[in-house]
Amino acid sequence: MFGFNKLTAYIAQSHTRWLERRIPKALRYQLDNQSIFILPTKFGYVFLLFAMLIFVLATNYQSNVLLMLSFFLIALFITHMFASFVNFARLYVSIGNVHPVYAGTTAAIPLHILPSQSRRAARGTLWVSFWQIKRYQSIELDSLEGPANIRWYAQQRGIGPLPRMTLQCDYPLGLFRCWTHLQFTQSVTVYPQPLAGDLPLQVMPKLINQTPCNIASHSPQVKYMTQLDEFDSLVRFQEGDPLHSVAWKQLAKTNQMMRKQFAGTSSEQGYLTLPMHTQIEKGLSQLAFQINQCHSEHAVYGIFLPHITIAPNHNEQHKQACLAALANFPQQHQRAGTAKTISA
Fold first, then answer.
1. Residue 263 reports pLDDT greater than 70
2. How far apart are CA 96 and CA 111, in angstroms?
3. 222 shares a domain with 133
């Protein structure tokens, strides 16, 4: 059994390497001889067997009618092969921007069927799935308007490319199946699944001078959070700032996008870090949950991880940067190490 599993793994790796050479990664694909595979369907094999059976009966009983019928069926079979290939080769596909998702949720992958270079659109039903997943989603090419959203279950956190996408079609009569395996270069970000655990929402380690090298291993954990509750001034609105802070009256008067800046009751700023004595994946999930909590409460927060430190902030762009840092956390990272400091 062990030898069989080893052989199966070797065949799968060899197949993957062969696909990478035959259909390399690309931003978009115009399907052609290099990327299309075609074989008869089960119905196609039965159809061909039936045509051959009629041919045998026609020669045995010397029936010209049955002989002409067998020739017609075989000609239809061969014509269908070329028609299926030509129709599938009209596909010119790409995927759009994939919004970040949390692990354990389903992402919507926008699949764009672009105008083909042949100026004739493909027809029929297109079946889409992901590599080694036998769950197909259908797209009606005849009535398609705009991108088609393909569902992909994000099982594990991380930042990387999507698995190979399998497209297949059996237009027009279902005698032949054309398919391809496409590897798009666009990457997708999967955040850790938020998990409410033992890490209190307002407990943050205090960083001295906001420099990782000055943090002692015995730094006490204190409870504090900067609350934005006192109006301070108006500043220019920047992309990523929360819309609830926009000064709408000022916008109506001056036609300038300004936002309200608030001053907190405390000048201190906090960092979120991995909880001690907790599995790393569970700690990352708890951090993702607390980042969402801090953002919803308009707190000024940063994150301190072994591989990166992000300075405190509170806007939407900062939240996305913090969650992306959690998604990009190395799989086999040790808690000790040198941290890189950035500002978000």
1. no
2. 7
3. no
Q: What is the largest CA-CA distance in the chain?
A: 101
Is residue 176 located within the same domain as residue 209? no
Q: What is the mean pLDDT of residues 157-173?
A: 91
Mark whether 145 and 27 lie in a shared domain.
yes
Tokens of 341: 């400091």
Residues 83 and 213 in one domain: no
Are residues 148 and 172 both part of a single domain? yes
Assess if residue 257 is contained within a domain: no
**Is position 236 within any domain?**
no
* Structural domain range at position 143: 2-191
- How do strand 148-154 and strand 158-161 relate by DSSP bridges? unpaired
* pLDDT tens, residue by residue, 269-328: 677 888 777 788 888 898 888 888 888 877 788 888 887 888 888 788 888 999 999 998
* Alpha-helical regions (H) of the chain: 2-22, 42-61, 64-88, 248-254, 280-296, 316-327
Query: For the sheet containing 270-273, what is the strand order?
Result: 270-273, 301-304, 309-313, 341-342
The end-to-end CA distance of the chain, in Å, is: 52
The reply to whether 214 and 286 lie within a common domain is yes
What's the rounded Cα separation, in Å, for the pair 17 and 39? 22
